[in-house]
Design a protein that fits this description.
By secondary structure, this protein is an alpha/beta fold. It is built from six helices and 16 strands. The protein has one domain: Ribonuclease Z/Hydroxyacylglutathione hydrolase-like (Metallo-beta-lactamase, Chain A).
């Protein structure tokens, strides 16, 4: 049976999704009478150039741009082992659909992992995914790649398809081309720093796809479990201000305090945002706020075009 999840876009994009896991993704409108509207409608007349679709927890599937007449399909944090009692657990059918590449997860070009915690990462499932889908490239912190190399099913041939990112906090890397997309990354502290997870390499990815004339047509950013303190982004100000991000997928706590809108809009230089990593018992400020958040399988947002 299809599993229908609640959809929380707070009036931004009126789309509802029902996912028959491992079979197909069916999109229907939230309202029979209300027209569909873009998340960017109120703030910009820039056309959308891609979509971001929720998986579960911090998982996001993005289809962006036009490369050689097509587009790039990427997944962020799609597979994980642990829900720690507060997050949604990945159903086995959904795991197998992602691992095997069943629709709507077919034709994936690249997978990005923010960090090697169990609620964002599964060495076993990602290793199986690489074996099942030989076209996929993987970009992840070196900590995550090292754990995958320890998996019993790791194959030496995977080495040519993985890119390990190793950075210090406040450092960024640019100019990585993966599956036709332009990838940039930076490291900032994991939430709870410095008391918790100080040694965890939490990587934010900023991914752009080019259109036929070589200009960026879509840009999405995924922050994993980044700590929201402004001081963490001070050393990255030039990197962040150099390019406008169409959609930033931020952990839900970025919505929870006064002044954090400035972090999203100004510091991260994002035109729009969606909250991810939302627990089953979502905090009240998410529903009370005006910004959208993902909480189920198949929620969809448009990604504004980037310049």
């Amino acid at each position: 049976m299809p599993i229908e999840q609640s959809f929380h876009l707070n009036g931004a994009l009126a789309v509802r999704a029902a996912l028959s896991i491992g079979i197909a993704l069916c999109l229907v409108s939230c309202s029979e009478s209300a027209p569909q509207t873009s998340i960017t409608e109120a703030a910009s007349d820039v056309p959308a150039s891609g979509t971001a679709t929720s998986i579960l927890n911090a998982g996001v599937m993005a289809q962006v741009g036009a490369v050689d007449g097509g587009s790039v399909k990427i997944l962020f944090d799609p597979l994980y082992d642990d829900h720690f009692g507060s997050l949604q657990q990945l159903p086995p059918e959904l795991i197998e659909a992602i691992v095997s590449g069943a629709p709507p997860y077919d034709g994936v070009n690249a997978v990005f992992v923010s960090h090697a915690h169990g609620d964002h990462f599964s060495a076993t499932h990602l290793t199986r995914m690489l074996a099942s889908q030989p076209q996929i490239q993987l970009v992840a912190p070196g900590q995550a790649i090292d754990r995958m190399r320890e998996d019993a099913n790791w194959q030496p041939g995977f080495e040519d398809r993985v890119t390990a990112i190793t950075l210090e906090n406040g450092e960024a890397v640019q100019g990585i081309e993966v599956a036709g997309a332009y990838v940039e990354a930076f490291r900032s502290p994991h939430a709870g720093w410095p008391g918790r997870h100080a040694a965890t390499h939490n990587i934010t990815f900023r991914v752009s796809a080019a259109n036929e004339d070589g200009r960026a047509s879509a840009r999405i950013m995924h922050l994993g479990d980044a700590d929201p303190a402004a001081e963490h982004f001070a050393a990255l100000s030039e990197f962040l201000s150099a390019k406008r991000t169409g959609l930033a997928a931020v952990p839900f706590w970025f919505y929870g305090e006064d002044g954090l809108s400035a972090i999203i809009d100004q510091t991260l230089n994002a035109q729009s945002a969606v909250a991810i990593h939302v627990p089953v018992n979502a905090p009240g400020y998410l529903e009370a706020g005006e910004r959208p958040y993902f909480s189920g399988v198949g929620d969809v947002l448009e990604i504004p075009a980037a310049e």
